Amino acid sequence: MPRICRHLKRNTRGLLSDLSGNNDFRMKFIVGTKERMTQIFDEQGVAHAATILRVTPAIVSQVRNPEKDGYEAVQIAAGEQKEQRLGKAIKGHLGGAKKFIKEFRPRPSKSEVLGEFVKGQELDVSVFEAGDVITVSAISKGKGFQGVVKRHNFAGGRASHGQKHSHREPGSIGIGGIQRVQKGTRMAGRMGGDRITVQNLKVLQVNKDENLLLVKGAVPGRTGTLVEVRSV
Predict the structure, then answer these.
(1) Could you tell me where the DSSP H helices lie in the chain?
(2) What is the per-residue pLDDT for 125?
(3) What span, in angstroms and rounded, lies between the C-alpha atoms of 133 and 124?
């Protein structure tokens, strides 16, 4: 590496450590529900596909610590539901008839720290700002029982030369010698309903008045799916 490059790299590292004081980053997270997709035009007039997330204010219901619980985490409760669906104990713990409960742990690989969270603290969409890069997790749409062409992107059989009613068949599933079907063979079955995480999505807009978060690109799940949003 040239001498000037080593000098710049050393100075940049020192500047970052001076600005932050350490290499730890405070956790940023929130939960919301998927609304729909739309398009947003930026200042240059370029259209971007975006997903609208409705972020209802959440309450910190519990702060877990290693001394009592064995690990660090923040538990939040969001959403509303009927009072009779929950018992008095859980309503007292959550601070009301909340619908969703999620825990977020600091990630050592990201140098995250828990930060200053207290029970009863309110978290809303203002946690994030336009331009933030986020990670989104949700349960994908359930597609029921599907064949190998849709589920595993099989090519299927040829459409000519003696083929009849076998264009989407999986073909042979056996193997010579061991006389059995090996574990993990890709076959037809239930598709969807999996937890999917999409990284490096960008926040386009934050609407604090209507509690809306506009995220660039697609987000897994159907309308109304609970979506976990956290900083990268």
Answers:
(1) 3-20, 66-69, 88-94, 148-152
(2) 93
(3) 17
* Rounded Cα gap, residues 52 and 216, in angstroms: 9
Instruction: Report DSSP letters for 75-140, one per residue.
Output: EEEE----GGGS-HHHHHHHTS--SEEEEE---GGGTEE--S--TT-EE-GGGS-TT-EEEEEEEP
Residues 6+ apart with CB under 8 A from 227: 31, 32, 33, 34, 53, 136, 137, 138, 219, 221
For residue range 141-164, list pLDDT tens digits in order.
999 999 999 999 999 888 888 888
Rounded Cα distance, 97 and 21, in Å: 41
3-state helix, strand, coil in the chain (%, to 5): 20, 35, 45
Residue 18 has pLDDT above 70, yes or no: no
0.85 exceeded by pTM: no
Amino acid at 205: Q
d(CA 135, CA 201) in angstroms, rounded, equals 6
Whether residue 16 is predicted with pLDDT greater than 90 in this model: the reply is: no
Domains and CATH numbers, the chain: 27-143+190-231 (2.40.30.10), 144-169 (no CATH)
Q: From CA 142, how far away is CA 144, in angstroms rounded?
A: 6
Question: Cα separation of 88 and 84, whole Å?
Answer: 9
